[in-house]
Amino acid sequence: MIRVLVPVFLALVVACGGSGGKVDQAVAIAKELREKPDEAEKILGAHQMTAEQWETLMYEIADDPAMAEQFEAGLQKK
Amino acid sequence: MRTMIFHVFAIGLAAAPLAAHAAPAAGEASERAEDRRTPNERILGALTLPLKAQALRKSGVGEGEVKAGLKAAKAKKLAAGDAAELLDEAAKATRDHGPVENFGAFVQAKLDAGLRGRDLAAAIREEHAAHGKGKGKSEGKGPPEGKGPAEAKIDGPPHGGPAEGKGRASEARTTRDRTRAGPRARGPTTRARRARRPRRAMRRTTRGRTPRARRRARVRATRSRRARPPTRRAPRTRSTASRTRRPSRRPRASRATGAAAETPVSRDRKQGEEAEPESAGK
Prior knowledge:
Radius of gyration of chain B: 49 Å
Keywords (chain B): Signal
Signal peptide (chain B): 1-22
Order of helices and strands of chain A: HHHH
Strand content of chain B: under 5%
Largest sheet of chain A: none
Helix content of chain B: 55-70%
Oligomer: heterodimer
Region (Disordered) (chain B): 128-282
Order of helices and strands of chain B: HHHHHHHHHHHHHH
Structural class of chain A: mainly alpha
Structural class of chain B: mainly alpha
Distance between the termini of chain B: 159 Å
Radius of gyration of chain A: 15 Å
Largest interface: A-B, 23 and 23 residues
Number of domains of chain A: 1
């Protein structure tokens, strides 16, 4: 029983924390991009991300209203 | 004739490839425009996509439509920055003209047709202007969401007065309201109104007259009222007839004695009967 529950619990934690983590990461990158728009590529590189991956992440966040709201709220915070 | 047909056929063959290349040319042009963007611009443009999607949702477009639009843009490998511009244009148009049905399908169709960038934005604007169902078209004609039809505002009582039989006739302004309100709210009948008229007329005319003249006017008004034909009364029912029946002239027989009471006629008969045996005896 425990063997079954542990993976399920871990999967739930990863799933719940995953989206929040993605949004937090996106907010952090977006804030840096706004501060230094000329160094966009460098900033993405520092976060180990390509331009395509960044675009895919933005599409993913835009598609989910909860994530989009969280992203918007995160950007408004200083 | 054969030469003509041959020439037409030859021209058609020559023109076909040109026409076939015309449609992709627009798409290629926009793709080239995308390519012209620097990586920095692409990255910064993508940053606004979630914000524009939220703006579109807030403007009143359904979640399904937003998702369909994003899916179509993603499927066509549209840059996130371009998708953001598209959504921004759609949000502005929705605010101005109201949402359109099947926004996602419309975007899909336009992307399939090869429209990108400004052309796509212009197409979205036109579509909203033509088929937008909302603010721009019905401004001032009706109430916003769920506040009832515009008709109710026109026909209903203007100052929130009662409309369904609760108020007085003066409060139920329109004919429709009066009909709904019932007989009391309808006010006095025509006959009653006519009956009131002479009094009002007298009141108006007697102002500024001498007491004698006033008295005369009053008498005249009373006479004219009396001179009118009497109003019809309701036909007498059985119950009222029994109540108002006059007592019969014939007296009832006294129950105690069982003898018939004397009436003038019976008295005469009695006297006659008494006189007959006497005459017979003689």
